[in-house]
């Protein structure tokens, strides 16, 4: 059996196979079919713009029924239309030209669609405006606008809501565990205590900043002809203000107009967007590796899924697979986004076709990120904080109080208290590389000769209470 001949076709990649449910919403925005639907939408809207009575002299005015019929063409673009367009492209061997012929077919067929069926009726002028389809356009006029609309929709309707829900989840966990003390690890070694919530809040804050940047992204578009000069436009219709027409049209699509381009829109906005998304990915990767580490330390317990298996041979295992899966997908997504950003900003002179192939990988770049977001959300939902183990860990590391003790001694020395010489060195000698218990530290503090208030404050301090403003920071700054 040749698997390539199996029907229905077997997916080559995991996003369209194993992980399809997690990324399916992107198909409506970043698939090849979505690209062709967007192209049809742009062609239709350009035709409507050219027949408004102000641009092309003598062009017939369209009725409301004509306009509705035209806009229904991309709106009803489904399996049959995808197959029809593919058949046309096999003849043209040119994807955008196939779209032009597809739209012209619909114009020719318009009189056969009665008003009762949503058509313009026999008296429609649509068959007479066929030559205004793709008028004065190069393929890239249609493509750049289509990709801008597609990426805009994928960001705003799919990726950004999913990423925002994840950050909200992390922020909620931070608030829930804001007061749960936890021993820090710097360089993997016991360090100044913090709280579980404060550490999660840092990650939520970092991720949120990137979401703000993505949310503010500009999606640029152009429509200015084969080399960006409006050459064909001005020769065909010299009386029109073509930059104004172009700007009105691009902004009417909900995009930002780019006034100066070569044959292609420069794609700089894509590079900016993908850099921000890649940065979000890498911060999320940091969250995944920290969660994995906290699980390995026992700080987080994983709630077993009924019926699930952690190992084919070790029955006890509950593996942190959601975070491991996320790590891998974030690395793949970031690599693709980096490649997109670095490749798309360069085009030989007026243009080359490297961007055509490159942009067809926007979907996988988004898909691996979206899959990772889904995995992290599911992984976080299976975690429980082991407060007892955290408390035990803190109680076995009293030496971390060497920091506040020497800091109190420093302040006392500045205030003129005698006997406070070399506080750092004395605490280093007492604690570095050694285990020190509560009794040993309190005995040391009692023999220092500190003012009573300072001595009492240190005597009451424990690793679990030495968390500074951690809880307050979560409340005050985690928006």
TrEMBL record:
GO biological process: IMP biosynthetic process
Residue stretches making up the Fumarate lyase N-terminal domain: 17-326
Entry annotated with the keyword Lyase: yes
Matches recorded under Pfam families: ASL_C, Lyase_1
Domain Adenylosuccinate lyase PurB C-terminal: 347-467
Keywords: Lyase, Purine biosynthesis
UniProt pathway: Purine metabolism; AMP biosynthesis via de novo pathway; AMP from IMP: step 2/2; Purine metabolism; IMP biosynthesis via de novo pathway; 5-amino-1-(5-phospho-D-ribosyl)imidazole-4-carboxamide from 5-amino-1-(5-phospho-D-ribosyl)imidazole-4-carboxylate: step 2/2
Protein origin, superkingdom: Bacteria
Keyword Lyase: yes
GO molecular function, one term: N6-(1,2-dicarboxyethyl)AMP AMP-lyase (fumarate-forming) activity
Matching NCBIfam families: PRK09285.1
Its biological purpose: Catalyzes two reactions in de novo purine nucleotide biosynthesis. Catalyzes the breakdown of 5-aminoimidazole- (N-succinylocarboxamide) ribotide (SAICAR or 2-[5-amino-1-(5-phospho-beta-D-ribosyl)imidazole-4-carboxamido]succinate) to 5-aminoimidazole-4-carboxamide ribotide (AICAR or 5-amino-1-(5-phospho-beta-D-ribosyl)imidazole-4-carboxamide) and fumarate, and of adenylosuccinate (ADS or N(6)-(1,2-dicarboxyethyl)-AMP) to adenosine monophosphate (AMP) and fumarate.
Name the record gives this protein: Adenylosuccinate lyase
Species of the source: Luteimicrobium subarcticum
Lineage: Bacteria, Bacillati, Actinomycetota, Actinomycetes, Micrococcales
């Amino acid at each position: 059996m040749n698997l390539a001949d199996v029907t229905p076709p077997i997916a080559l990649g995991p996003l369209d196979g194993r992980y399809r449910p997690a990324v399916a919403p992107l198909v409506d925005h970043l698939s090849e079919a979505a690209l062709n639907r967007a192209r049809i939408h742009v062609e239709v809207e350009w035709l409507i713009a050219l027949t408004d009575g102000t641009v092309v002299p003598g062009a017939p005015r369209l009725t409301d029924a004509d306009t509705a019929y035209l806009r229904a063409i991309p709106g009803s673009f489904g399996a049959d239309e995808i197959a029809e367009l593919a058949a046309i492209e096999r003849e043209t061997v040119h994807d955008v030209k196939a779209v032009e012929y597809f739209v012209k077919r619909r114009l020719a067929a318009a009189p056969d669609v009665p008003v009762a069926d949503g058509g313009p009726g026999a008296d429609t002028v649509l068959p007479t405006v066929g030559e205004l389809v793709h008028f004065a356009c190069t393929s890239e006029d249609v493509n750049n606008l289509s990709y801008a609309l597609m990426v805009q929709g994928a960001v705003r309707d799919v990726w950004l809501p999913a990423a925002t829900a994840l950050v909200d989840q992390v922020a909620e966990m931070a608030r829930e565990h804001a007061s749960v003390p936890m021993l820090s690890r710097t360089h993997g070694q016991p360090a100044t205590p913090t709280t579980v919530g404060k550490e999660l809040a840092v990650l939520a804050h970092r991720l949120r900043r990137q979401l703000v940047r993505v949310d503010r992204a500009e999606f640029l578009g152009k429509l200015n002809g084969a080399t960006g000069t409006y050459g064909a436009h001005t020769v065909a219709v010299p009386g029109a203000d073509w930059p104004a027409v172009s700007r009105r049209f691009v902004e009417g699509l909900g995009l930002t107009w780019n006034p100066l381009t070569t044959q292609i829109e420069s794609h700089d906005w894509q590079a900016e967007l993908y850099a921000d998304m890649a940065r979000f990915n890498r911060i999320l990767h940091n969250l995944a590796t920290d969660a994995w580490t906290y699980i390995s330390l026992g700080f987080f317990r994983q709630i077993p899924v009924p019926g699930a298996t952690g190992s084919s041979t070790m029955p006890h295992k509950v593996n942190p697979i959601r975070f491991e899966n996320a790590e891998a997908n974030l690395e793949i997504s970031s690599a693709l986004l980096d490649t997109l950003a670095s490749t798309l900003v360069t085009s030989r002179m007026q243009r080359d076709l490297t961007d055509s192939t490159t942009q067809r990988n926007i979907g996988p770049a988004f898909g691996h990120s979206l899959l990772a977001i889904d995995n992290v959300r599911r992984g976080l939902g299976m975690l429980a904080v082991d407060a007892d183990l955290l408390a035990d860990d803190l109680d076995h590391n009293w030496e971390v109080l060497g920091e506040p003790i020497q800091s109190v001694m420093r302040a006392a020395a500045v205030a003129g208290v005698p006997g406070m010489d070399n506080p750092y060195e004395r605490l280093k000698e007492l604690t570095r590389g050694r285990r020190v218990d509560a009794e040993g530290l309190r005995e040391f503090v009692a023999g220092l000769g500190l003012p009573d208030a300072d001595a009492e404050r240190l005597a009451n301090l424990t690793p679990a209470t030495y968390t500074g403003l951690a809880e307050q920071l979560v409340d005050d700054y985690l928006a």
